[in-house]
Amino acid sequence: MKQEKESVEKGIRRKWWQRSFPISMMILLAIVFTTSSAAAAPTGSFNIGAYWQPPTAGPAYSTDMNTNANWLAIKNANIDTVMAIESESLMTKATNESGINFSNANNVTLMATDGGIYGKETFTAADITALNNKILPYKNDPRVKGLNLKDEPGGWNLEGYANTYKQAKLFAPDLSYYVNLLAYKAERSESDSLGAPGGKLFLSNSAARGSGTFVTAQQSLGQTFKMPADVSYLHSMQFYLDAVQWSSNEMLSLKIWDSPAKTTKLAQADVWGYASATTGQQYKYYPIFTLDVQLTANTTYYWELTHNGGGDNSVGWVTSSPTGTSTNPDGTAYVNGVVKNYDFYYKLYTRRPNTPDIKVNPPVGSGDYIRSNQSFGQTFTTSSNVNRFLYYIQPYIDPVLWNGQALTITLWDSPSKTNKIAVSKTLTSSNSGLMPIFYIAAKLSSNTSYYWEITSNSSSNVGWMVYSSSSVYAGGTAYKNGVQQANSDIWFNARFGSEYENYVDDWVDYSGADFIQFDNYPFMGGPSDDANYFLNIELIRDRAIDKNVKYGAFLQSVGITDSNTGAVRYRNPNLNEKRYNVYTHLAYGFKNMYWFTYWRPQTNGWGEVFNGSPVDFNGTQLAAYAHIQTLNSEMKNLGTTLKDLTSQAVYHTGLNKPRGTTGIPASFFIRPQDMNETTVTGYFTNTHGRKYIMLVNREYNFVKTNIPFNLNPKPATLTEISKTTGAEVPLVQGTYTAGTGVLNITLAQGEGRLFALPIGY
């Protein structure tokens, strides 16, 4: 919904642009990587906000809508923060004046947008100077509380925006800064618009830009580089080149050598070009070459990029710094083996420490068929340092006898199959040749044994499931029809950590920010909801807790239709759906709760027509205004307690638990009597260890009346945090019987309620 169109960066030069241009000296902006603890601490703050301030005079409005009345309406809607985005390229300190003045007068924080700041990447000394000069007028104005830096950056240029955040925070630390991440929509790859590399960045020469040259069948490009003292494994390398000039029948090869003399080749990766790369596909300008090679720390090596023929035998520009400009003190560029006085743009990645994948790849030999009466499975053991989701399981299956039959992998706690943890997406054919990918999305514990089992719905033979005739894996063993196979293992890979988790982690690591913010809108066209809604919430919470930062989300307050077809892209949510949107996030510990959108945007360049917003184009209050005003009031009151709570766990009940969620354990101290009730249970503690529970109705179409919950052990009392006052009070509605430990409550459609356990419970 909130999207940004990017122009192709100026460092790329087309083949017909042969003339270089003057450019100031560039230097590398060092990246400071942050570390994190294992659990999130309470933040002491709870924020309610909205996207889109009243617009200023410009292309869409003849008059400035930033009046005191319009900002008073924002305050009266219980909104304390507003992100500005209207005509961002035209906004200056002068045009922001009315918004700054009236937001400050009404004690609302405006994240002001300025065309010289928004969407700017920072790499060089000149970049830093330009950014600081643009921030200075806001820094010197005590009425200004925050600035809008970027909405939905792609992973391929996240480093530049993170550098901007870091530098802005350094220059004006008293200001708040807004950066909002993309949502998880589907399984992704490193070559899509998310652009999050599989490796962890350890050396960046991103400041080397402004010039470039071509790699051709007759001209190789190279660069010496030095491995840092604390890194000895090279996972992959990334370049910046003109993908428009790289056709699908042109292959580039990257080789790692011991030196420019090329005595010993240590690794090689080959990548084919693209059939096309438009301005909407900038991620293709940043290809990644996966090398996976062990090198020696504190040692200099040489990479070489060659063209293997095909197409017009020319790809470029491959971006570099201008002639005479050094951005890397530990290396230099080469063309056809001749040293140059500049450097190429490149990034080096090592393995991520928290994604210890499992690879059980015995020699291909034994096997058997899968069918409805014959299943296969394998136990496996997680490592001690895994702290990300199990992304997928990839077995070895011959695709020849797999034509439309459904195969599914189910993840269990053990071969006894007592607790079902997750079910993969069903496949009806191989999606990657002999090694199909079954996406799982399950958070697993470290140093723990699990069991996956693949089953078919067909009575005919499916595939040829490959397993070994001898044991090759100490962490588990193969099973056939639930019977352990002695000295045998299934051929499989288990990958931990998705590209989306890489993307979220990279934002915090690159920027050093103390927050993660994202947007995800569940209410699709028609009656359907986003199937990944809860998985996205789970992933954001998980990464924020791992990084020990605050996390926030956007809530859906509008509908969107297609201006060309009239098709509903997102339906206009009613009050019950908005309530569900609010409380499902609160149960997960979100503390920045922002609405998209407050002011109704004009129809945009993506053919989006907005409807049902809280206020219309002229600021007239509509039905949704009362909706968000009421829900914001509830959040504000609950926030007086929630701001100091730490999310400990979130559990789901019901027959069909959403993808990525966790069922409530049998030993947990509060559970619904009927485990088929569709509920969400958020478990929190305060700084003194006192326990709190938020119980949420996971259905927005039905009221749940007098639902019984069992508490064990049985607390002597149970209190509730009031949505109308924020005070801790006796049960507002419902009963609790200490003798039986049974709580009976009613939950409106999508409603959540926050309860406090006695001190010492």
UniProtKB/TrEMBL annotation:
From the UniProt annotation, give the residues forming the signal peptide.
1-40
Q: What is this protein called?
A: Uncharacterized protein
Enumerate the UniProt keywords alphabetically.
Answer: Signal
Keyword Signal tagged: yes
